[in-house]
Automatic annotation (TrEMBL), chain A:
<dbReference type="Pfam" id="PF22549">
    <property type="entry name" value="ARPP-2"/>
</dbReference>
<feature type="domain" description="ARG and Rhodanese-Phosphatase-superfamily-associated">
    <location>
        <begin position="15"/>
        <end position="297"/>
    </location>
</feature>
<dbReference type="InterPro" id="IPR054346">
    <property type="entry name" value="ARPP-2"/>
</dbReference>
<protein>
    <recommendedName>
        <fullName>ARG and Rhodanese-Phosphatase-superfamily-associated domain-containing protein</fullName>
    </recommendedName>
</protein>
From TrEMBL, chain B:
<protein>
    <recommendedName>
        <fullName>TROVE domain protein</fullName>
    </recommendedName>
</protein>
<dbReference type="InterPro" id="IPR036465">
    <property type="entry name" value="vWFA_dom_sf"/>
</dbReference>
Length: 396, 487
């Protein structure tokens, strides 16, 4: 049977900020926030948050797989297919009966509270989707080659053959832990037509958050604080200094009249835009692998991952893209170095059909070294005990 | 050395410059700084910063430090200076001592009584009890016209001050402050009233509002009845402060002539109103603002030709919880004042707001972009451009200074209008109100009413005046302050 290729024409090849401008950044301590402005605001996609107060949430992904995470809130996307203005969730008048609660049940376990949900993403109405921000992409990241070895090489333990990589976990830190982020978000002056922010900690891109409507952004601005960040950024925050960026000053020689002065001011503004794009070049205009997650009328919810190069910055994220390719929603997470290392090794291993020898050759190292690396990265549980011990004795 | 002659002058120049900049920085901070939270800096950092600055200037330039009292600085810093001077003890030089003494006495008398009593309590708590301190407190207490009134209104503080200096009080006052409450009547009517008010709800309406308020609680008098009956005893400031409370309390309306309030106070009141009320009463409020501006101008006359202002209404103009909307109120008041003082006037709010006939409908939101408004203002070719902003320019940073410099160098040349930046906010990190750049002189601004003084002071912050001139300016102001009191 002919396998039909999924339609990929309206998927993003790169993350490009078409139709969006980056305004000059606002710095407080080590945190730099870059406002993202949208030139033309369309009203047909609105986002709001629905807060959850439980300590942990468990979400069933399929019969055998569950996803556990701390989830501060879900996003509710409302859209219209014909381009007419959509109304943000919670602002329209309607009876409670028609709203199905797909948010599962909350349990109080005494020592903690938990929420159990059946779905990661649930359609609540014809034009409304509830999804869990950040967890869309983290789920994709965690389930990367989740199945484990598909060829039973002798090195792998029986558990690895049986359960794959399960349980696979990653640790993130809350934004509150990043020094100065809370204050920086508090004193940040939100622009009138601002729809998003790029967060830099120690001038390294920590996260990008873009929505489709300025009003939504204003309401969601502080969610940047409850978001997840890689633990690397916690250290960046500790050591970061306040940095000053200076694009080229106005050139006196080029100014003869008021008109020249005005164009120079505009030039400085566009320089700021360029400068910020340059600072985030590891996310923007960088090839990404993407995957369509959900189709919602003229929009698509997708997740993406930059090429996992252990030597560079790597981001994972999710986006909602309009049919014509305009970015309507973006949320990214910067992987910490250890996290990319893990993902990179897994991908290399999977690419060589889980053969340790072939993979070692590809990475120009020995089998023992590779197994040692995998163990250090936290994948020791994939291998037989005796294999690991042999490696240890050889490398000693 | 052959150039032995040149070196000392260079050194002297450096020294002169250093001294001048220190003192100007200090005076400038004293206009704006308080020990309160600001939008960008918190209470702790502000107080550490301003207290260091006081100490530094007190030790290095004591004469100028004392004279700063006359420069028109805010009450908080006057209080701080008096405290530090008293704590440091009197200087040996007789002339300096006399001048300082009379400056302290005059400044104290001009300060609001609550601040003075707070200062006395602070002196007591810090155990500052030298001869001069005692004399200052004694003479202040003796100068007060109604000691009984003070004793009732500021009871604990008054007692602390009186005990601290061992002053001999009038017998009844002494009994009132230091003895256990008894039912024995006083001959002084006010004290007697206070004694009666402890037992009878009808007697509280002769007392000052703040005292009566707590007694009303004790006697469980309904709020509306209390507010109606106590109204004649309220001061103007209390009436203004209680306008919104009265609006919430059913059936009470506190009569208040809005034009009686000071310009900045009034602007603060206007901004504290709800948007709907704001819009409904716009005409009345606008008239009151203008009347207040006119009154401020008769007190400190100012006439200007063609003035443009750039007014910052970015989000940081909301101030802090303690100084709600203060930067915005100062901007609004400054705009009203300069509109009345200038023959031609234009205001450029940033970020630009929707056209509305009433400036007072403004509110704080958005980023701080000063470069484009400055370009608009320069195109209009005014004689004077006043920028009222907290100085945290972020869209983009440091551009307005470049625009001003390039305009002066390449376009305006000699006909460049004077540009002054007035900053109502103290920046703790830089020990001064935050500057926009080297080209634009920055002055701290306490209230919009001080603009005439600040325009005069701007030449010092611009760095064009010498230390001698500054000293002469201060001496002049000292002279004026001391003599105006004598007459």
């Amino acid at each position: 049977m002919e396998h039909k290729q999924p339609k990929t024409t309206d998927c993003l090849e790169t993350i490009s900020l078409k139709g969006l401008t980056l305004a000059p950044s606002q710095v407080l301590g080590g945190v730099r926030l870059v406002p993202v402005l949208r030139k033309q605001v369309r009203e047909d996609l609105r986002l709001t948050k629905r807060p959850y107060y439980e300590d942990i949430a468990a979400i069933q992904i399929d019969n055998k797989t569950a996803y556990y995470s701390y989830i501060p809130h879900a996003f509710i996307a409302d859209w219209t297919s014909d381009g007419s203005p959509a109304v943000a969730y919670g602002t329209q008048i309607r009876s409670n009966k028609s709203t199905k609660t797909s948010d599962g049940t909350a349990h109080d376990l005494g020592f903690m509270t938990a929420r159990v949900m059946k779905k990661m993403r649930a359609r609540e109405d014809r034009n409304r989707l509830r999804f869990l921000p950040m967890d869309v992409s983290l789920e994709g990241f965690l389930s990367l080659h989740f199945g484990g070895p598909n060829i039973i090489w002798e090195e792998y333990s029986r558990a690895a053959i049986r359960d794959g990589l399960s349980p696979r976990s990653e640790t993130t830190i809350p934004g509150r832990w990043i020094k100065g982020l809370e204050d920086a978000l508090r004193v940040f002056e939100i622009h009138t037509n601002q729809v998003g922010s790029l967060v830099f900690v120690g001038d390294a891109l920590a996260s990008a958050f873009i929505v489709s409507h300025p009003d939504d952004y204003r309401a969601l601005h502080e969610t940047l604080l409850t978001d997840d960040y890689g633990e690397l950024l916690y250290y960046y925050g500790l050591y970061a200094q306040e940095n000053c960026l200076d694009p080229d000053a106005i050139d006196v020689r080029r100014v003869r009249s008021m008109k020249d002065l005005r164009s120079e001011v505009a030039r400085v503004r566009s320089d700021w835009d360029k400068l910020h794009r340059l600072m985030s070049d590891n996310l923007l205009d960088c090839p990404v692998r993407h995957e369509m997650v959900y189709r919602m009328g003229p929009f698509q919810l997708q997740r993406f991952m930059t090429e996992l190069n252990p030597k560079a910055e790597n981001h994972i994220g999710e986006s909602i893209v309009r049919k014509n390719g305009t970015l309507e929603y973006l949320k990214t997470y910067r992987l910490s170095a250890a996290q990319c290392r893990r993902a990179y090794l897994l991908m290399q291993l999977a690419d060589s059909n889980w053969s340790v020898e072939a993979c070692a050759e590809k990475l120009s190292s020995t089998r023992n070294e590779l197994i040692f690396r995998l163990e250090k990265a936290g994948f020791g549980y994939l291998f037989h005990r005796h294999v690991l011990e042999e490696v240890h004795s050889k490398l000693r | 050395m052959t150039d032995g002659k040149v070196q000392p002058t260079e050194r002297e120049q450096l020294r002169e410059r250093c001294e001048r900049e220190d003192v100007i920085m200090f005076i400038n901070s004293c206009f704006a700084a308080t020990r309160q939270n600001e939008y960008y800096t918190d209470l702790y950092r502000t107080s550490v910063s301003i207290e260091f600055l006081h100490r530094y200037v007190l030790i290095n330039y004591r004469l100028l430090y004392a004279r700063t009292l006359a420069a028109g600085i805010n009450h908080f810093n006057q209080q701080q200076i008096i405290f530090n001077l008293l704590e440091a003890g009197a200087p040996a030089d007789t002339k300096q001592r006399t001048e300082e003494g009379s400056l302290i006495a005059t400044a104290l008398r001009k300060l609001p009584a609550n601040r003075v009593y707070a200062l006395f309590t602070r002196l007591q708590q810090n155990r500052v009890n030298n001869r001069r301190t005692r004399a200052v407190i004694k003479s202040y207490l003796a100068w007060r016209r109604e000691p009984e009134f003070d004793a009732i209104k500021y009871r604990n503080k008054y007692r602390a001050a009186a005990a601290h200096v061992h002053s001999r009080l009038d017998t009844e006052l002494g009994r009132f402050l230091f003895e256990r409450p008894s039912q024995k009547p006083y001959t002084t009517p006010l004290l007697n009233q206070y004694r009666q008010a402890q037992y009878s709800a009808a007697a509280i309406y002769e007392l000052p509002f703040t005292v009566a308020e707590s007694l009303a609680q004790k006697h469980q008098i309904p709020r509306d009845v209390f507010l109606k009956k106590i109204e004649p005893k309220m001061t103007a400031a209390e009436k203004l402060r209680l306008q919104s409370t009265a609006a919430r309390t059913k059936g009470v309306e506190i009569e208040f002539d809005l034009s009686r309030a000071g310009l900045t106070k009034l602007a603060l009141y206007i901004l504290s109103l709800k948007q709907s009320e704001h819009a409904a009463r716009a005409e009345e409020l606008q008239a009151a603002l203008e009347a207040a501006a006119d009154k401020a101008l008769t007190r400190a006359p100012l006439s200007l030709d063609r003035v443009a202002t750039i007014l910052d209404r970015s989000r940081s103009a909301t101030g802090s919880r303690e100084k709600r909307n203060r930067p915005l109120a100062v901007a609004l008041a400054a705009s009203t004042l300069l509109r009345r003082a200038a023959t031609e006037y234009r205001a450029f709010w940033t970020p630009t707001q929707k056209e509305n006939p009433f400036e007072l409908l403004t509110y704080a939101t958005g980023q701080t972009a000063l470069a484009e408004p400055l370009l608009d203002a320069l195109e209009w070719r005014p004689d004077l451009i006043v920028i009222v902003s907290d100085g945290y320019e972020n869209d983009p940073p440091q551009l307005v200074d470049q625009v001003a410099r390039v305009y002066r160098d390449a376009i305006g040349k000699a006909e460049t209008p004077e540009i002054v930046h007035m900053n109502p906010v103290f920046d703790a990190d830089h020990y001064a109100p935050r500057r926009l750049g080297a080209t634009i002189p920055t002055v701290g601004l306490r209230d919009a009413e001080d603009i005439p003084i600040m325009l005069g002071f701007a030449k010092f912050t611009a760095g064009t005046a010498t230390l001698d001139e500054l000293e002469r300016y201060l001496a002049l102001r000292v002279n004026r302050m001391l003599n105006s009191d004598g007459t």
